[in-house]
Amino acid sequence: MWKDIDISLEKTETPKPKPAVEELGFGRHFTDHMFRMDWNREQGWQQARICSYQPFEMDPAATVLHYGQAIFEGLKAYRGDNGQIYLFRPLDNLERMNRGAVRMSMPRFPVDLILQGLKALVYLDRDWIPEANGASLYLRPTMIGVDPFLGLKPADNYIFYLIMSPVGSYYAGGFSPTKIFVCRDYVRAVKGGVGEVKTAGNYAASLLAYEMANKAGYTQVLWLDACERRYVEEVGTSNIFFMLDDTLVTPPLGGSILGGITRDSVIKLARSWDIKVEERPVTIDEVLAASQDGTLKESFATGTAAVISPVGELFCDDTGYPINRGEAGPLAERLFEELQAIQYGRSEDPFKWTMRVG
Ligand code: COI
């Protein structure tokens, strides 16, 4: 059934003006076109199309609006110095999304078809890919359940869509150290739940703690495990790393943590530089003690949107713990530079992470 789907194209007649690079910010502007495909239980996926960026009409009873059947991804397209367009590990994002679909009782989608649509969409809107270093085109594939039905069950109708936004840095400060608030009052996810899925509700549930941290002057929240509130899990919307002595340590994926693609890239890059990397449980007490006895050399968060985000301070139980004197560490800088060099096609790509478009 999947193999027979063609992607139709309907170009916009009213292209929008493009924002200047210095006005980009993150996720505020959207390109001229989007991809969309519909699913219903009898016919499966159908009507794959690229059309003008447009609102949906949705029934007020739609499943996603009440029970949150929604999954999404974030990946980026880059304009290299040579004008070539690169995607970074797009298949990893699409495969992770399909695993999330299974967990959320949503239909899997044909990865090859979506990749074909994604590449065609990026190429069609290629003039929206910003050329400035650090800027990129952020792609947001999303799937939602849309049955007009208030009984609780998996929907019988879904929309898969993909929108694109030219972006600069996720944080207004760019690659500069963030201050992180260790959250003791709320948790993000529990093993056996949906913490490893990029589903909308995880992000909604994080907002109250984020707001509290933000009001107190912190950039993000550091989440601890739900059972003992001792083990470090994630920071805000990203994975977290600590350089403890000469070992790079990050919490293991155990179901409550998102298996970040930037996380995986950092682990592989660091190992290729002969840096010892451990994916192991790490308690907040170990991290704070290391910051006091000087063995915590540096810390950074990783994610598609934020790339590498150095952590300059942890704030826990009314006490501030500076890291690397509040400055970005050398490993965070090296990883940021090397990842970007690969993503923009300036450097060798030994891991075959990039995919050319056009
Ligand atoms: C990403 O890093 O791509 C994310 O999905 C985080 C999002 C909250 C911006």
TrEMBL record:
One of its GO terms (biological process) is isoleucine biosynthetic process. Its EC number is 2.6.1.42. Pathway: Amino-acid biosynthesis; L-leucine biosynthesis; L-leucine from 3-methyl-2-oxobutanoate: step 4/4; Amino-acid biosynthesis; L-isoleucine biosynthesis; L-isoleucine from 2-oxobutanoate: step 4/4; Amino-acid biosynthesis; L-valine biosynthesis; L-valine from pyruvate: step 4/4. The modification N6-(pyridoxal phosphate)lysine is found at K198. InterPro entries: Aminotrans_IV, Aminotrans_IV_CS, Aminotransferase-like, B_amino_transII, BCAT-like_C, BCAT-like_N, BCAT_family. Belongs to the class-IV pyridoxal-phosphate-dependent aminotransferase family. This is Branched-chain-amino-acid aminotransferase. It comes from Desulfofustis glycolicus DSM 9705.
